[in-house]
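Hi, here's the filled form for the chain we discussed.

Project: internal
Contact: R.S.
Residues: 52
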Amino acid sequence: MGESGIGITVGLCGLTAAVLLVASHYWREWMRRKHLKRMDHRDCWEVMRDRR
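And the returned structure, exactly as it came back:
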């Protein structure tokens, strides 16, 4: 029972680390898309052109 408990503990730690890595990857991609959308100046150009 002792060895199987250690194996389960190590496996759960590995799965937890994998879940955290995947979650951080998707969070960084979401933030990257958000920042890229904010850098899109076409909307500002259209607003400035219509003001004339």
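Let me know if anything looks off before we file it.
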